[in-house]
Amino acid sequence: MNEQSTIAFDDAKAEAFATHLVGALNGAALALMTSLGHRTNLFDVFAAMPNATSQELAEKAGLAERYVREWLGVMVTSGVVEYTPQTKTYTLPAEHAAFLTRSASPDNMAVTCQFIGVIASIEEEMVARFRDGAGTHYHDYGRFHEVMAEDSGQLVVAALTDHILPLVPGLVEQLERGVDVLDVGCGAGRAMMHLAMTFPASRFTGIDLCEDAFAETQITAARLNLSNLTFRAQDLSQVASLGKFNLITAFDAVHDQKDPQGLLSLVFNSLAQDGVFLMQDIGGSRDLATNIDNPFSPLLYTLSLMHCTPVSIGQGGPGLGAMWGIETAQEFLAIAGFGQIETCRLPHDPINAYFLARH
């Protein structure tokens, strides 16, 4: 007899698991509808209204009432919005708006909810990748660059001068005097544009594999006459050095590269002797057991599976994934030659770790 068949079936455990799956289905639905509420500005409009009917909310937001009413059904039954049947009015509590509106940044979780729709759009592609083991490419993901830029906008750009740069003693003063700064895997390039505007005496360069990622920011920078900011598209796996920079940054960019170890070696070779490399990356562990208690782990592993891992494989890379772990990041930095490595956490960013590396 099969050993499994001798184990008594636990009805309570089965029922609890079924309940868990119902919660997962409702959570997925809420995440998608939260993304929709963000993209249509419903949360921002709603937060400014003490209470409203579906018609009033729709008119204020410039949307079709029938769709707004159905969306409100999701929000009410999910416990996001309060409903008064007698007057058929809806209320978005201020305590909920604090995590759903643009003014709530960096706590606006509606921004992050957009990733669910982005990765769901390539489900068919990933079914095929499970079977053939091949990878994907950045252009497969539609709005990925747009959503990533908005997410980084509230976690990185908005926190740069007050929280991130002060991790390095004296760095703000150096930037004020004038230094050379490089951002590898710059994506939309908004971090570099923010710094170029804040520190006009310094010179900033953003490099990314995909020119379309920073195209819009490049146009904006030209319109603002930011002569101290340049962008270029380049495959960083093809060069040994990029010059010498006093500060090199990488924001959530290293783990999904074609050659993460090679990129860190390139950074080491491109860093001035007294310079610093500031790297933000996912702050999980490479040890699955350690990640069980991390409340963000299901989301991070999903993003890793649906984007980070296949994008790396699609470039011919190792597919380290987002959960390559702070342990691996520290090891890779040491292998690249960095003698001083410090790992930091910031209160505003519970997902990522910040690494300061010097020669």
TrEMBL record:
GO terms of biological process kind: methylation
Location of the Methyltransferase domain: 176-290
Pfam families per the UniProt record, alphabetical: Methyltransf_31, WHD_Rv2258c
Gene Ontology molecular function: methyltransferase activity
Domain S-adenosylmethionine-dependent methyltransferase Rv2258c-like winged HTH residues, every copy: 28-102
InterPro entries tied to this protein: Methyltranfer_dom (IPR025714), SAM-binding_MTase (IPR053173), SAM-dependent_MTases_sf (IPR029063), WH-like_DNA-bd_sf (IPR036388), WH_DNA-bd_sf (IPR036390), WHD_Rv2258c (IPR048711)
Keyword vocabulary terms for this entry: Methyltransferase, Transferase
Gene3D superfamilies in UniProt: Vaccinia Virus protein VP39, Winged helix-like DNA-binding domain superfamily/Winged helix DNA-binding domain
Protein name per Swiss-Prot or TrEMBL: Class I SAM-dependent methyltransferase
Organism: Pseudohalocynthiibacter aestuariivivens
